[in-house]
Amino acid sequence: MEIGSGATYGSEAGHANAGDGATSHQPGDASARAQLHHAAAAARIGPNAIIQTAAALSAVVSPQDVRCIFETAGIAGYLTAGPATMVGEDEVAALFHAVDLALPPADAAAVARASGRATADYIVANRIPRTVRNVLAWLPRWMAARVLLASIRRHSWTFAGSGRVTATTGRQLALTIAVNPIARPGCHWHVAVFERLFKVLISPDARVTHPCCCARGDTACRFEIDI
Ligand SMILES: [Zn+2]
Fold this sequence. Notes:
alpha+beta, H-NOX domain, four-stranded antiparallel beta sheet
């Protein structure tokens, strides 16, 4: 997400999506067509979902356990060379699932939250120009929150992939991800990303709750933001 300059991040996504498996096969080759279909079907998500989860895991389990979790997810290669561009939403979903399988629920939730906070910190440090941060700090809190929410909505593919994201700016600020492709019960990663962004950029009192969740049978994940 890059507030105030979406074009840069958008072109990065376009590059990532164009690269998968399209050049090593002859036209008409069934395998090439299958890979192209897969590339078109597998939506992309920002690499921090994987990079920061690896870092969060490393803080609480051994390197061997980190490797085991990444192998379970089928993405152990990222431990050797971290993702430099966007990653497949299926890869992120597999990693989040593997973390939940490997760790006790409280520990898995703590890892997801640490990863989400670090992802938000990366966004604030690298994707939001200082001038925009200054404007957000200068605006009335209610207005700044709506500006931030709209920006998150515009860059929603970086955290929601193929999920359909809507933002609500009425009495209750909210983000909704219909058919969230990386949902896990409670969506601790998403909650932490959004809460950290609002705490740092809008108000230290900001809180995000998650009353509806695809991973618990709801049709959409809903995140409510109170500032
Ligand atoms: Zn959810």
